[in-house]
Amino acid sequence: MTQLKNDTFLRALLKQPVAYTPVWMMRQAGRYLPEYRATRARAGSFMGLCTSPDYATEVTLQPLERFPLDAAILFSDILTVPDAMGLGLYFADGEGPKFERPLRDEAAIKALVAPHVEDKLQYVFDAVSSIRKALDGRVPLIGFSGSPFTLACYMIEGGGSADFRHLKAMMYGRPELLHHILDVNARTVTEYLNAQIRAGAQAVQIFDTWGGALTGPAYREFSLSYMQQIVSGLIREHEGRRVPVILFTKGGGQWLEAMAETGADALGLDWSTDIGDARARVGGKVALQGNLDPNVLFGSPEGIAQEVARILASYGSGSGHVFNLGHGISQFADPAHAGVLVESVHRLSRAYHG
Hints:
By secondary structure, this protein is α/β, with parallel strands linked by helices. It has 16 helices and eleven strands. 47% of the residues lie in helices and 13% in strands. The two termini are 31 Å apart.
């Protein structure tokens, strides 16, 4: 593989010295970019993008052509994993992802098994290899998956949910069924991420989008313990260097100490947690990623730069910070404002790195 020309992102995740704070954006390849929308139209559908290594490569690189980002992230979707388990993923117009066969029946749950990821998800690994080749060492490539709990939310509810009624009914009524789903998910995600690493992913992130919907005890039992299982089973060195692991639980700021005990290299923060407080709590163990409110990008360029400056000052001097949004960029964001964010991080952060 080509040697990296810019490894600032990987160095920051490992708390090694850097010249500036690296930055990337969750959903940086997405609907806010007109070139993405044009490619999606050519692909015919969202899944047409995801399942084509050529299209996935094209849209992964699009934000890097616009902005001097410090990492690329594989273009895919967390729900490709339950789709590979036979749940029948489809996208309804205006309604988001749905499953034809949600897991509500005990027999169907007990029949759930981990798929052979190399058979079912080879298009993802082909995309990783294709993206690495196209990047030619420009910046590192991030692979990712949803957390076992977040995947289970969609698998049981059949799509998005405001209250997770079906999942929580199972959790409080038949927890052994939910544990079976989570165990299958954890084993599948471990193999899925390892296959991404073997294909060329240089860091991986686990998106626990819905872990924050749980109580503290439930979070530890039904979400964190399974992410710990994944972290313990991941390839941690490949191509002669460490492969950092990032955990991101949206709404999980109250559990950072427990998350830092998993062995992950970095924790993602949403915008509701002060990054300076988070550093004081866990910065000795892990790097931190975040955490600009995505809606700041609807403000003025001056306001964006001010918020960037505030977060950088809150984190303070030294490495161990990867700048990011606290969640995905809005489809309605102005690309020029995303450019202001990236430029501001690079310009203002140098003062914090001796």
